[in-house]
Amino acid sequence: MIDLRSDTVTTPSKPMRDVIAGAGVGDDVYGDDPTVNALEERIAALFGKEAGLFTPTGSLANQLMMRSLVQPGQEILAEVNSHVVRAELGAAATFSGITTRTWQASFGLLNPDQPLEIATPNAGPYLVSTAAIAIENTHNFGGGTVQPIDHIKELYEGAQSRGIAIHLDGARIWNAHIASGVGLTEYGKYADTISVCFSKGLGAPIGSMALSSKERIDSARVWRKRYGAGMRQVGILAAAADYAVTHHLQDLAHDHRRAKSLATAIASINSSIIDPLTVHTNIVGLNLKVLGITATELADRTKGKGLLIGALGTHFARLVTHRDFDDTQCDEAIDILLNSLVA
Ligand SMILES: *Cc1c(COP(=O)(O)O)cnc(C)c1O
Question: Residue 140 Cα, ligand 1 centroid: separation in angstroms?
Fold first, then answer.
């Protein structure tokens, strides 16, 4: 079975498992795990941040960073289809008393004027004060789109001048970096807090990281424990993440190339299903409206032929390429998709 439901479906390779087996460990709640400590320092340095905090999930890294920026009763602004708004089950409201307002952007692509126009910092006793703006790069439900660095910079500067913080949900910032050539440190410059995932395209079995100033990360460490996510000999997982960053980062370019091939092949049937120009990285979003079939119908058809895809909306299907999907499987997947789309 070929699986394009997500880039989270990858499994650890033999060399990654060897690194896991050999990892030095200690009790990380006591700060004693050398592999975790080294990973936190390494990733923080990559993004030009003072400190990092290893977390089991990207959602937790997002939540810890958002609560460090936004007080209960204040708001964070985010794009209407962003992960923090749609896919974290209301965690910011549930755990941190944070309210949200959204703006809508085609393909999730950032226009800095949109959040800055609706922002209301220090709104006084009647209106909700905006404390932070969250951006997502790449934008998952936007189809893996890369936010142009100029727009991020403009947003950061506009927000700073209004006393508003920027959180970057960088679950796939690695893909943005490889696709755009913009340095990780450059992305780090224009965010007060960042979350990154090792468990997506990089192919680690689990793990994410929150990145910020030492002060914010020290406080987030307390909140991580309070949430029940203080972990012990977790160096075995940090070792996998470290291996993934060293050995898998450059491979993302292959995932991007294969996503483009899928999009180009599908566009040959009907260009309104997908415009290959909108495929910047490893995600291919299909709009099936013109064909009059639902995403679930298409997913059922492809599954019967040996290909799993994601049905995310009534007419919206998603294909995500990853390191356990090779060129041969890409050819097979194209055959299956073409047959299923015209069936
Ligand atoms: C996957 C993802 C996350 C984190 O997801 P977890 O499953 O909690 O690790 C956060 N943001 C985006 C955009 C994602 O795609």
Answer: 9
CA of 171 to the centre of ligand 1 (A): 6
**Beta pairing, strands 193-197 & 165-170:** parallel
Query: Which one-letter DSSP state was computed for residue 169?
Result: E
> Do the domains spanning 14-247 and 251-341 agree at the CATH topology level?
no
Query: Among 140, 174, 209, which residue has the most ligand 1 atoms within 8 Å of its CB, making it the best to mutate?
Result: 140
Give 146 Cα–ligand 1 centroid separation in angstroms.
Answer: 16
Domain extents in the chain: 14-247, 251-341
pTM more than 0.85? yes
For residue 49, give the nearest of 217, 213, 220 by alpha carbon. 213
Please identify, in words, the CATH class of the domain defined by 14-247: alpha beta
| pLDDT above 80 for 343 | no
Is there an atom of ligand 1 within 6 Å of 57 CB?
Answer: yes
- The pLDDT tens digits of the residues spanning 249-297 come to 999 999 999 999 999 999 999 999 999 999 999 999 999 999 999 999 9
Residue from 83, 137, 172, 202 to probe ligand 1 pocket by mutation (most atoms less than 8 Å from CB): 83
Over residues 119-139, the pLDDT tens digits come to 999 999 999 999 999 999 999
Cα angle vertex 246, ends 245, 252, to 5°?
60
For domain 251-341, say whether CATH 3.90.1150.10 is its number: yes
